[in-house]
Backbone:
């Protein structure tokens, strides 16, 4: 930058910065706009083509503010305002719900383990493996009626025990 450019910047910089700051709500953004204003203005100012330097600078700065607002508006539906980050709903369960769910699962597994072996096996094949009753009967070499009996017994024991536990809580 030549001495003439430096003198021009020194003379107009503060008023230009105040003007831009009045147009935008961010000091860093204002500083960037002022910098870009000088980058665009200096070539024309060096050629002596500008009659009113202050009006010329303000015009460039205002155009940059408008262009920037237009660009930010174009992307705003996809860009989250940092200040709104705490307002977004979190789908993750709370720590309390996580602990309660783990306790419930642990209890259910203990209850399943307390079932008689064949009953537990039929229950696991149906509810965990997702096999149909006919598939379970074939796999275990028992009748479909026996599969249904074991499932009924398992569900009755689990429901009764869980009901007793919920009633005590």
Residues:
């Amino acid at each position: 930058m030549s001495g003439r450019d430096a003198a021009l910047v020194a003379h107009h910089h503060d008023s230009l910065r105040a003007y831009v700051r009045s147009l935008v709500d961010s000091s860093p953004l204002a500083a960037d706009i002022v910098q870009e204003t000088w980058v665009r203005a200096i070539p024309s100012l060096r050629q002596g083509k500008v009659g009113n330097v202050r009006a010329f600078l303000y015009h460039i700065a205002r155009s940059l503010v408008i262009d920037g607002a237009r660009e930010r508006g174009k992307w705003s539906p996809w860009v989250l305002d940092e200040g709104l980050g705490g307002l977004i709903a979190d789908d993750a369960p709370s720590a309390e719900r996580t602990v309660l769910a783990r306790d419930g699962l642990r209890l259910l597994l203990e209850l399943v383990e307390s079932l008689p072996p064949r009953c537990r096996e039929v229950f696991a094949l149906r509810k965990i493996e997702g096999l149909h009753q006919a598939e379970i009967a074939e796999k275990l070499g028992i009748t479909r009626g026996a599969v249904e009996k074991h499932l009924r017994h398992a569900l009755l024991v689990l429901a009764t025990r869980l009901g007793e536990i919920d009633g005590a809580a």
In short: The radius of gyration is 37 Å. The mean pLDDT is 85.
